[in-house]
Write a structure and sequence with these properties.
- The protein has 429 residues and is mainly beta.
- The relative contact order is 0.12.
- It is 10% helix and 39% strand.
- The two termini are 28 Å apart.
Length: 429
């Protein structure tokens, strides 16, 4: 189990690079480290990627081309995209592993901002948020190139175009005049109609707020007619060489959707709201597949000793379900696995808990950390949506791997309930 920064881990994400399993971790002291899990060594160490501010979140975008992207969010109010291959190439060229005593080659990121080096720093979004709310990527970010980010006003969130590096719409979570839900605490983006040809237009954003409520914003409220028309137009045409030279970047011909510059301010009255917790919503996730009734199951965590549960219909109706009690209060992170069979929670009581999503019962109680568990990371869901996925990437998911990061400055890698053999095993509590 590799050690991380002394100030604690903020995020981690597993992936395969050839035959090597890489884990990217961020810490509250502002470093991003890329680990080789087989050797338990750091292969690259990014210094000051967010100007010495702490790292809030990391996400991995598996690109069809040569630019696999590591997206980071820091306490400096920015969301940045890093070319992972370029980082590994620079680190290998330095050939300074021994001189750092096992800490890996150190890469100073300050020069990338000063020189606007697009080889390594692919984009930098100045979202202006200094709260603990974390961004959420589009359900299929390789086709619809946007992210939902907390705004400078902590009661707003914004939709950002990653390629154009601008906000295309803004939504306010104030429900009524004189009545407020408080600041945005967490965000989740998902498809209301997965598998359809128009699925990228039928996305939704679920927002958890300080009052303990969750709200559903559908795509019809997030995208203006001009943006919707632009999305449909891009889906029906092939990008020409002239469009590739118009400044949208090297990915202009990859079939992804690029939004036009536009802003559309909405209020929380345009959303469907549901009171789930009495405490602020700290984390949330929504299943990528509907259940037998055609609804999407959502789960949320707070400082309470319970897991909030709700369903979202394809028409945008949010319904409260019976909560699931847990022994100790406080959940920092919660994740549903891509097959929608199990979900995992990160607890303040140092424990990682695994639950059966359908039956809503506990499966495992994992204790290895000596501090509060801050974050969980499952294999990127994007790996499962491509036919050309590498066997080893699929194997990573099928073997049931996930990792957890804790205040004890350690990453734990777990292998639990493999997907392809799950039906052959029965777990008794």
């Amino acid at each position: 189990m590799p050690e991380g920064s002394a100030s604690g881990l903020a995020s981690s994400n597993p992936r395969h690079d050839g035959a090597t399993l890489l884990i990217a971790s961020g810490s509250t002291d502002g470093e991003i480290k890329v680990w080789d899990f087989e050797t338990r060594r750091v292969v690259a160490n990014l210094n000051k990627p967010h100007r010495s501010e702490g790292i809030l979140r990391l996400e991995y975008i598996a690109s069809a081309g040569s630019k696999d992207i590591l997206v980071s969010q820091g306490r400096d109010g920015r969301v940045c995209g890093w070319n992972l291959q370029a980082i590994l190439t620079i680190a290998a060229a330095q050939d300074s592993f021994q001189s750092h005593g096992g800490s890996g080659p150190h890469i100073d990121c300050s020069g990338f901002f000063a020189e606007a080096d697009c080889r390594v720093l692919l984009f930098s979004l100045n979202v202006g948020s200094y709260t603990f709310a974390q961004f959420a990527l589009a359900p299929d970010v390789t086709r619809c190139n946007f992210a939902v980010c907390p705004a400078q006003n902590d009661q707003f969130f914004e939709v950002w175009d990653l390629s154009q590096q601008n906000a295309v719409s803004a939504s306010c979570v104030t429900r009524k005049i004189g009545g407020k839900t408080g600041m945005v605490m967490c965000l989740k983006c998902f498809n209301l109609n997965p598998g359809s040809e128009a699925e990228i237009l039928e996305f939704a954003v679920m927002v958890g707020v300080e009052s303990g409520e969750v709200g559903l914003f559908a795509s019809s409220g997030l995208l203006s007619p001009a943006i919707t028309a632009e999305v449909e137009k891009n889906n029906q045409r092939k990008c020409s060489a002239e469009e590739a030279e118009s400044g949208v970047g090297d990915d202009a011909n990859d079939g992804s959707v690029h939004f036009a510059s536009s802003r559309l301010a909405l209020t929380g009255d345009d959303a469907s709201w549901l009171s789930v917790h009495e405490e602020p919503v700290l984390c949330m996730d929504v299943a990528t597949k509907p259940n037998s009734a055609g609804d999407f199951l959502g789960i949320s965590g707070s400082a309470e000793a319970k897991i909030g549960m709700f369903t979202v219909s394809k028409t945008g109706r949010v319904t409260l379900q019976e909560p699931l009690d847990v022994p100790k209060r406080g959940i920092s992170d919660i994740r549903i696995r891509a097959d929608c069979r199990i979900f995992v929670t990160a607890g303040w009581d140092f424990r990682v808990r695994v639950f059966d999503l359908k039956k809503r019962r506990p499966l495992a109680n994992l204790l290895i950390h000596t501090g509060s568990v801050h974050v969980l990371a499952l294999p990127p869901r994007g790996l499962l949506s491509h036919d050309d996925v590498e066997n080893q990437d699929r194997q990573l998911w099928e073997d049931g791997y996930f990792c957890s990061g804790s205040q004890d400055a350690r990453i734990a890698m777990w292998n639990l309930y493999p997907v392809k053999t799950k039906a052959k095993h029965k777990v008794r509590i």
